[in-house]
Amino acid sequence: MRSLSLRLYGATTWLLQPLLRRKLRRRAVAEPGYGVAVEERFGHYDEAMHGAGWCWIHAVSLGETRAAGVLIDALRREVPGIRILLTHGTATGREEGARLLGPDDMQVWQPWDTPVVVRRFLDRFRPRIGILMETEVWPELTAACAERGIPLALANARLNEKSLAGAKRLAWISRPAYGSLAAVWAQTETDSHRLVSAGARVEGVFGNLKFDATPDTVQLGRAARLREQLPKPVVVFASSREGEERMFLETLRHLRHSPPVGWSPAAAKKVRLPVQDVQWMIVPRHPQRFDEVAALIESCGFAVARRSAGSPSGEGESIWLGDSLGEMALYYGLADIALLGGSFAMLGGQNLIEAAACGCPVIMGPSTFNFAEASELALEGGAALRVEDMEQAITQTLMLVADPARQNAMVQAALAFSSAHRGAGARTAAAILALVARTEASAGQDPALAPEATVSESGSPVEREA
Question: Which Gene3D superfamilies does the UniProt record give (predicted)?
Fold first, then answer.
């Protein structure tokens, strides 16, 4: 029998469905992807959408989907015929996930976490195993999978102090959810300790899957060709968040007319690189804010050149706006330095691993708790610098791009940092295959004769013809 807490939770999520529908309608105005296949979120699917024996991977948003791509590649190297069912919660995640699909794979929205919707999802797709990426632990989903004997694991798992505090406040529902997971594989030892405190059984610390991601070589090649034509060094404010762009633009505007605080005229002359001699670029974290940021750039007295209007140009003194998806390798390849979004507005910072993989040094603000260990490792390895505020970030940037030897040393350090921490993909794929084999063995099944799917020699689920 289900606990009272889980029944109360299920009743609450059921009552919240009208609010979710209203939220999706509003989000779809700015991001049409939220208006696509809405009924999938409530367990209603096209007739053609069915099957059994899926390796189901849930990647809620863009970052998790990119990590899922690394894991999918590793699984396919082990079992070329594996069939993937991808679920997402955001439009950017779904758009990115569509690029990962093979001819026999499928993609639907994450089921809303009510008993009825989760039951419809599991009845329709009958996954052989479920993998939740990074932080997504849903109480109804974990309970339903445990009841059906479907192993559900949390991969590339992370948990910061703020989220742990929230989990402890809601321990009546979060602790059983973490405890229902068949396995948890953490990014770091610190994450492992926090996850155990939340009630999870951590079976391994495998590192961050994002280190295994390979930057788009076509984009990097294009960036290299464009750089040869540009008269100025390029600095990108990558994955900027609301409030940070204004901070950035107002600091630039101030420094255009006066040297940084604490700089003597001799020091300013030594740098020999005023603000206007750098090509600045902003790439907002959320695509629904592209127009808002373009308007902000103009309101701060700068011209704006949008990526959506064509390739970057070295002419003029405009701020470039990277208003496209899936081109971060191009932006990092163009840039001499990257400022880390989310780290200046005390939001915990965005992922710096992709910048490092592209050989782009990073300057980060004081707030990096979302990627605490990666940030510290990058600092220790010389691939990144930490500053206290935006003015320090820009002045350090000016000093760095005026010092080619130091900048090149950071480029080499970034590449070394990126390559030194790879391997999480293979470790996680092996653990997934072992979990499937272990689960079936404990259920007394012969994997080769399982009713819903055959199993490869390596123990991976592969759907059998009906």
Answer: 3-Deoxy-D-manno-octulosonic-acid transferase, N-terminal domain (3.40.50.11720), Glycogen Phosphorylase B (3.40.50.2000)
